[in-house]
Write a structure and sequence with these properties.
homodimer, about 190 residues, mainly alpha, 3-stranded antiparallel beta sheet, elongated, DNA-binding
Chain lengths: ~190, ~190
DNA sequence: CATTACTTTCAAAATATTTTGAACGTTGAG
DNA sequence: CTCAACGTTCAAAATATTTTGAAAGTAATG
């Protein structure tokens, strides 16, 4: 095969591997995804293992994750017994799945924990010594900052995800970065 | 110490550890940061090692990263020979430093690589067989999608970072993402 | 229902990351 | 200059993650 074609393919696959690793996934996920993405035809597990020179076990496990994250889907090849996969080429879909399934959960969990902390402190205020009350007030301030921060992140994610758009980025670009946007006043964050 | 105060402290520290790990850093970084954040007074390396029950070496190394990422700064305690640290309590500053120093670089690198790929393919088009030209066209399409995607990410990051603001989140909010928010829609999703 | 062609699983091995602590620097005080 | 009190470094040890491959599972086919 032409060496430039090959170079493009390889650097793309490697780059996607780097990206998935950066996002906290295994980089094999990215390389599998990239391999599928750069292949016009669907590929079987064996094809993938062969191409990337990794074991079938690893391909199998990572392909499961890939499917879970909506990065590829099975494809039926008539007359074939093997499973074939094809990449979800709409990156917008991919990123939305990841953001909603993972980052969103992370943020929600953080907010829950913080909420519980605040509640505990408030409920117990009566039992504290003067000294402890001071510390409790300090904690509430810090925890409040964190809450604001996470609520902000949650809002950003939600609005990002709320753009229902389909397969092209045109849909996303009604993202208007210059207009005023009126968020709640809750967004102060005392310097501390 | 009152057990609720303690619980709040610990869950916050643990939560921040989880967060830094999620962001691809060592979780000790988050725990150190959290410990500093939840302590009204600056703390020395020994204090931190003692509080988190980890070695001085680890504290030293991780505090270096923490400083690099603008998550804490040194504080001079008069009459003291030790280094004291205090957390940067403005989370906005922290996230900006991380986004601009790390994610931004990641995206730029990706775009560079993609740009080179495209150029190579275009320059060499003449030398390709018909078969290869077809594949090249396919590659260009895929790579083009990736470019759009990363350019979009870059734009989002830039506009996020362009909000020069100080300690409140008001400055960010001229980011208008879209029409309807639906904070109640369901975020729950298959686990990883 | 037996065979065959695949996929999945999982424990052991390989690899990568993190932690430790003791040795080595550095700085300020005397 | 020497000592004492720190901070930093880094190689070895401890942990955690990833990979492998062989065995077990599954489903289509005859």
């Amino acid at each position: 095969m032409n060496e430039n074609l090959n170079a493009v393919n390889e650097s793309t696959v490697a780059g996607l591997g780097r990206l998935t690793r950066f996002f906290g996934f295994n980089d094999v996920m990215g390389r599998l995804y990239g391999t599928l993405l750069m292949n016009p035809e669907p590929m079987s597990l064996d094809d993938l293992a062969e191409t990337l020179q990794i074991s079938k076990g690893s391909v199998s496990m990572n392909m499961r994750s890939i499917e879970r994250w909506g990065m590829a889907r099975e494809v039926w090849m008539k007359g074939e017994r093997k499973k074939y996969y094809t990449a979800e080429s709409d990156l917008w879909t991919v990123i939305r799945t990841v953001l909603s399934g993972r980052e969103m959960r992370e943020v929600s969990t953080a907010l829950e924990v913080l909420g519980q902390s605040v509640e505990k402190l408030r409920l117990d205020e009566a039992e504290l010594t003067e000294e402890e009350k001071k510390l409790a007030a300090y904690y509430l301030e810090r925890v409040g900052d964190l809450q604001s921060f996470f609520e902000f992140a949650q809002m950003l994610l939600s609005s990002f995800l709320a753009a229902e758009e389909g397969p092209d980025f045109g849909g996303v670009t009604n993202l208007n970065l210059d207009k005023d946007f009126d968020l709640d006043s809750e967004w102060e964050n005392g310097t501390g």
